[in-house]
Amino acid sequence: MKARDYKAAHFLWSVDDDGVATLTLNRPERKNPLTFESYAEMRDLFRVLVHADDCKVVIVTGAGGNFSSGGDVHEIIGPLTKMEMPALLDFTRMTGDLVKAMRGCPQPIIAALDGVCVGAGAIMAMASDLRIATPRTKTAFLFTRVGLAGCDMGACAILPRQIGQGRASELLFTGRIMTADEGERWGFHNRLVEGEVLMETALDLARSLARGPTFAHGITKNQLNVEWDMSLDAAIEAEAQAQAICMKTNDFRRAYEAFAAKREPVFEGN
Predict the structure, then answer these.
(1) Is 55 helix (H, G, I), strand (E, B) or coil?
(2) Neighbour tally for 57: CB within 10 Å
(3) β-bridge mates for residue 131, sequence order
(4) Cα distance between the two ends of the chain
(5) Annotated domain spans of the chain
(6) C-alpha angle 44/89/24, rounded to 5°?
(7) What pLDDT does residue 21 have?
């Protein structure tokens, strides 16, 4: 699959010559809510990116000064109140599959966040590998505000690992807004930048990663995922095997040769 050839139906998608893909949620008039169709299309896209050798990093962002207001009230929330249990379970499994697909694709995912980032939008930010936000970013896991549990799309597994059990519990029980300053202080946001340089900063980071050993980046992401429920001994052994695999790549040889020649290495991702 060539990622640059993909034609998105429910969001904007582009891939530049550096291998940086940008996925833009594009319903700015309603703060970029998600629909049944956009959930499913993003899930399917992230699943096939494992086969896309022209895509090295993905940026997810939103149009119009907001990231996402979560599930569309009229197109998702309303219909859900009329569904029977089997259909509801199909839906909740499908939304969870989006998170699985984001965590499972080998490319690092950078969330470029601004304005409203709530509900499923906050989950997409959480499921990304890195988060760059503006000072006006407001993040909320507001499921309890609509009478649901805070345990949605992996939030009870992932969020405590990012910001700590106590802080995650507060956000998931109350549904309150986490300010941008709190998000950076707690470790949710990797950095805060002004809105006018948000995409420039995200692109600079993405291109620096794309210039790196991208095969090894995929190994790192996989280990960050699988070591969550390993013992320390098992994790150290898994990393020994993973690093041995990376030592057989051409990028490892390129790095050594560049060091010996006192020049910067040029990685090719193999």
Answers:
(1) coil
(2) 28
(3) 111
(4) 17
(5) 3-210, 214-260
(6) 35
(7) 98
